[in-house]
Write a sequence for this structure.
């Protein structure tokens, strides 16, 4: 069985502003979510998919908008919105094989 996720590309997706998400009361989170036929809804920020729009918008609000966490590489100050991205960056660029938890612990050290 092949899992042919055509949308799971690493690059950007075509961005379109659609007026259909008008019930959010001008909520900006909806603009981070893109409906994908047959798959549900895609978070444009981290490429996660959701079965329904409510979950997707809530995800955006939690992870990318309201007190959206930023993860900085403590070696080169690169900023990541997704913790896993920083982890991969530290692995690839700085050769550190650390878990997300270990990186967090590093962060709390002076
Ligand atoms: Zn996301
Ligand atoms: Zn770095």
């Amino acid at each position: 069985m092949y899992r042919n996720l055509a949308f799971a590309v690493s690059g950007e997706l075509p961005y379109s502003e659609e007026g259909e998400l008008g019930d959010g009361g001008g909520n900006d989170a909806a603009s981070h979510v893109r409906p994908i036929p047959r798959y549900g809804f895609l978070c444009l920020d981290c490429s996660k998919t959701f079965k329904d729009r409510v979950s997707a918008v809530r995800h955006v609000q939690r992870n990318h908008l309201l007190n959206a966490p930023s993860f900085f590489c403590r070696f080169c100050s690169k900023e990541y919105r997704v913790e896993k991205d920083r982890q991969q960056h530290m692995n690839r660029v700085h050769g550190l094989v650390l878990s997300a938890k270990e990186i967090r612990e590093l962060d709390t050290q002076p």
Q: What stands out?
A: The longest strand covers residues 33-36. Helices lie at 53-65, 83-94, 100-108.
